[in-house]
Write a structure and sequence with these properties.
The complex is a heterodimer of chains A (338) and B (603). Chain A is an all-alpha fold. Chain A has helices at 2-29, 34-38, 46-56, 62-74, 88-123, 128-142, 145-159, 184-190, 194-231, 234-241, 246-283, 289-298, 302-330, 332-337. In chain A, helix 8 packs across helix 9 (194-231), helix 10 (234-241) crosses helix 11 and helix 11 (246-283) runs antiparallel to helix 13 (302-330). Chain A is globular and about 85 Å long. The longest helix of chain B is centred in the N-terminal third of the chain and has 18 residues, at 192-209. Classes of the chains: A mainly alpha (338), B alpha/beta (603).
């Protein structure tokens, strides 16, 4: 198991290296001369531009620049955002928990619905449950997140008045809990701030439902088809022939095997969620990294964009690593074969 | 033996089962009736589609959802099983009536240790929990002669051989000491020596526990050797049943006779496998005693192999891992990757018109050898000369494009999975012609393909069908047709009939023999079935652990085997020996078995 872990960790190294080089190159191919951009006046003199260029290190060769970039990253320096005037790292660190909290909640919600639904659809194939699963999946794939988000806001905030206004993660008049992890649900529970917990949880409902609906379809369908495959397998037949109880047959024998491909899907789904939550964050005024990066991009503020891409890449590598390790824990054959 | 006075343990009466298919209802079982008495071993014998497995599933209420029991009854100890509720059936399954299956490696949960799977059964049917259940699981593995059972309970199915998995499955089925065991082809796909060990284990358990066994098989030899009574099924009906000796010495039904003759046993000629009434013209009959078409000593062999060796690289560790991260672990073999020698210094020749058999058990290296000869894999060392020309060094990819590719063709084991499911029979046969002969013009192609159809007796009107629309025998013919379409000199036959029913196998084998003589082919015939090799081949090579342990003419090998391994292989072949000079089936074998003289495999 240790060898397996070490191997998996090592496999992530090339991915991270490629990522660093890629983000560096993205900056090189983006249009515009940063030196001209950062110079003071509207018509900078040649000396001024040259000075800025030298200060930014743009007069060096490309490999040298890459080296500097790598050194900066190693020192956790991602540059400054000129629109907010703060270090990119600080901005990202403040906003990442918001995005992660949303994505994780949405994923848990989606799993809580799709796995039982998929399992039931497979066990009672062709039954009303199966049809329900199909309808849910179809709705999930056919509705873009911003439509679902706006629709939910309209119904539950404007019309029924059940949901809080779609702005920020917590009520304006509720003091946020002391920052421990940045995850409001966790921080407020840890510090016993039940009013903050209630407010934060309330605001999380609509956006996470919106994201969950989006990923319900692949998870449900994967669970269903994988479960169907496993239910018709030889070892489930054996389990039945041995007179094991339904719970043992369906959960311990069938579901545990059926979850292996679902685990892989889950990794892909979570990555998609991280990438696509820009829209949801926009609709719900969520102070996450997605909307931050979008703002920066629109303002041609490239350092935050670069930082964002790097961060997303690292997150994806981490997610894949976690999925691989989870797979290894769940499947003894993967441990051995890898 | 069942005494007349004993009430039967299980009684099936007039059982009829139908399947709902997209093409309407299909009758799978048609008024099947038989009894199984206490401590009896009853063999259910039939080819695919005979309904033998459906019978077993009906007993346990495990029929697929498309199946319906139309009429009849299944009575176990005076209690009808058909009307039972699911919960009542669950209480019977695994504890009163249990079942073991074919392909044990897939019949066990791949991600659960075998011990845990046995404990699951114990927990379902006994008050045993926790440690007690675990201890019983060890005992259960011990009872099926698995050594170091305390360690083996933690093993996953993929860590064990097929034979070990089947033993574990049997341990699981017998953990709650059922009175009736349904064994559905428990040894199909296992090596002959493993098969023998498993069958003897089943007989031993049957005797020692007084358990009854319903033994489902397609192999008449196994039924003859291990069963008290035999039931012959054909297309959902029981066509004949009776004591084993009677069935095999005086078969009454025409189907039984056909099956018996199709089973390669002590026959003298290949054509004997087919009943006289159905025999077609397979050309001049070659007597078994006839010597091989003696190759002139001056004549160059078609294939000449010298010192052929192949190593597989095991676990290619990333260099970075072995050098930097885990230096203390992998230093000894940091530079030399672990190798597995699958084929070790083979030398043999195949002459014109000769059929050379290559036999051995799984892992003996016979498949690797066939791939090396067929130029699908490049050997690590050695020489392969085709018509005197060295081809061992040629890269398989470039060889596939060369003109010599035509000369060596291969027929693969499973015709179902070796044909492209999205190509029609016509396209499958046309493929080598288009690639290797660069045949242009559809008329010429069609003419050639029709010629091939005539040769392999594949109906031309089926050429437009896809593999799934063809029967096993037809698919096998397409596979053979593909191989011979380009007029090869040597055909590697890799277990060409192992997926076929015996009666189909009989016809296909005759076909192959006829083709060989008609087209002047040479065969390298890879098989695990010594009976078939005896009928098909002129010479035999026995492989074990990558080496040829014995090489002899068929007559010599079967009458005077020299190597101990060859003797063990020959000894493991199930035999039908009834009537005539052979003593009718007596208690001799059984008493020997129950005395504990059971071969226990190591590890």
């Amino acid at each position: 198991m240790l060898t397996f872990l070490v191997r998996r960790l090592l496999a992530a190294v090339p991915a991270i290296c490629t990522l660093v080089v890629a983000t560096f190159l993205i900056m090189r191919v983006l249009p515009g001369d940063p030196a001209a951009f950062f110079a003071s006046g509207p018509v900078p003199t040649a000396e001024e531009t040259a000075y800025v260029r030298q200060k930014l290190g743009l007069d060096r060769t490309v490999p040298e620049q890459l080296l500097i970039y790598v050194k900066d990253i190693a020192r956790a320096d991602l540059g400054m955002s000129f629109t907010t005037g703060r270090p990119v790292l600080t901005e990202l660190r403040e906003r990442l928990p918001a995005s992660l909290e949303l994505a994780v909640t949405a994923l848990l919600l989606a799993l809580a619905i799709s796995i039982p639904l998929g399992v039931m659809a497979a066990i009672w194939r062709g039954s009303p449950v199966d049809h329900l699963a199909r309808v849910v999946s179809s709705i999930g794939v056919s509705m873009p997140t911003f439509v679902t988000g706006l629709l939910l806001t309209y119904v539950f905030f404007l019309w029924l008045g059940l949901a809080p206004e779609p702005v920020d993660r917590i009520d304006m008049f509720t003091a946020p809990p002391p920052r421990l992890t940045g995850f409001l649900l966790i921080d407020s529970s840890l510090s016993g701030r039940w009013d903050a917990l209630q407010s934060a949880a309330g605001r999380l409902v609509l956006p996470s439902i919106t994201m969950a609906i989006f990923v319900l379809s692949p998870l449900t369908r994967m669970t269903r088809s994988s479960m169907l495959g496993v239910l018709s397998s030889d070892f489930v037949r054996t389990a039945r022939a041995m007179g094991l109880s339904d719970v043992t047959v369906y959960i311990r024998y069938a579901l545990r095997n059926a979850l292996l491909p679902v685990l892989t899907t889950m990794g892909i789904v979570f990555s998609t969620m991280l990438g696509s939550n820009v829209l949801v964050e926009r609709v719900f005024g969520w102070p996450g990294i997605g909307s931050f990066a979008l703002n920066a991009l629109l303002a041609s503020d490239y350092a935050p964009v670069q930082g964002f891409v790097l961060l997303m890449g690292l997150l994806l590598v981490t997610v894949n690593l976690a999925i691989d390790i989870a797979y290894g824990l769940a499947d003894p054959r993967a441990r051995r074969g890898a | 033996m069942l005494k007349r006075s004993d009430p039967p343990l299980l009684s099936i009466d007039g059982l009829a089962v139908e399947f709902d298919t997209p093409h309407g209802r299909v009758r799978a079982l048609d008024h099947v009736s038989f009894d199984i008495g206490a401590a009896e071993i009853v063999g259910i014998v039939g080819e695919s589609g005979s309904g033998k497995s459906v019978t077993a599933y009906s007993i346990l209420g495990l029929l697929p959802r498309q199946a319906r029991v139309r009429s009849g009854s299944v009575t176990y100890l005076g209690r009808s099983l058909l009307g039972l509720r699911e919960s009542e059936l669950k209480a019977i399954r695994g504890s009163e009536i249990s079942m073991v299956f074919q392909s044990p490696q897939t019949a066990l949960n791949p991600i659960r240790p075998v011990g845990a799977q046995i404990s699951d059964v114990l927990r379902a049917h006994s008050p045993l929990r926790g440690r007690d259940a675990d201890r019983r699981a060890v005992e259960a593995l011990d009872a099926v002669h698995i050594q170091a059972a305390e360690r083996r309970v933690h093993a996953y199915p993929f860590e064990m051989s097929g034979g070990m998995c089947q033993r574990s499955l049997i341990a699981m089925a017998l953990a709650c000491t059922p009175r009736l065991l349904l064994a559905d082809e428990p040894t199909t796909g296992l090596d002959v020596t493993t098969q023998k060990a498993i069958m003897e284990l089943l007989v031993e358990l049957n005797r020692s526990r007084g358990m009854s066994t319903m033994f489902i098989t397609h192999d008449l030899g196994l039924a003859a050797q291990y069963c008290d009574r035999v039931i012959i099924m054909e297309r959902g009906r029981v066509v004949e049943h009776g004591p084993t000796a009677q069935i095999f010495s005086r078969p009454q039904h025409v189907y039984t006779r056909k099956l018996l003759s199709a089973t390669p046993q002590g026959h003298d000629r290949l054509t004997d496998l087919i009943p006289a009434s159905e025999r077609q013209d397979f050309g001049p009959v070659r007597q078994r005693s006839e010597a091989a078409p003696a190759p002139g000593p001056v004549k160059e062999p078609v294939l000449s192999v010298q010192g052929l060796t192949h190593d597989y690289v095991l676990q290619k560790q990333p260099r970075i891992l072995s050098n930097f991260i885990l230096p203390w672990r992998s230093r000894p073999n940091a530079t030399t990757p672990a190798l597995f020698r699958a084929v070790d210094d083979l030398s043999f020749e195949v002459h014109h018109g000769e059929c050379v058999g290559l036999v051995g058990e799984s892992g003996s290296g016979k498949t690797t050898t066939s791939r090396l000869i067929a130029k699908l894999v490049k050997p690590s060392a050695g020489s392969i000369r085709l018509h005197g020309e060295e081809i061992a060094d040629a890269d398989p990819r470039s060889f596939a494009r060369s003109a010599k590719r035509r000369l060596i063709q291969i027929v693969f084991q499973d015709p179902a999975s070796s044909l492209d499911p999205r190509r029609t029979a016509f396209e499958a046969i046309a493929d080598p012609l288009l690639r290797l002969e660069r045949l242009k013009g559809s008329e010429e192609l069609e003419r050639r393909i029709h010629g091939i159809c005539d040769l392999v007796e594949f109906p031309k009107e089926l050429l437009g069908r896809y593999p799934h629309q063809l029967s096993g025998g037809q698919k096998a013919r397409v596979g053979i047709g593909r191989a011979i379409s380009v007029n090869p000199a040597l055909v590697v036959l890799d277990e060409p009939t192992s997926a076929l029913d015996v009666s189909v196998q009989a016809v296909v084998l005759n076909q192959l023999d006829k083709l060989k003589r008609a087209l002047g082919l040479s065969y390298l015939f890879v098989s695990h079935d010594l009976n078939i090799v005896r009928l098909m081949c002129d010479r035999v090579m026995v492989m074990k652990g990558g080496q040829i342990v014995e090489q002899a003419t068929v007559a010599d090998l079967f009458s005077r085997p020299q190597h101990a391994y060859t003797k063990a292989l020959l000894d493991a072949i199930p035999r039908i020996e009834f009537g005539g000079a052979q003593a009718p089936f007596s208690g001799f074998e059984r008493s020997r078995l129950s005395a504990g003289a059971v071969a226990v495999p190591r590890n």
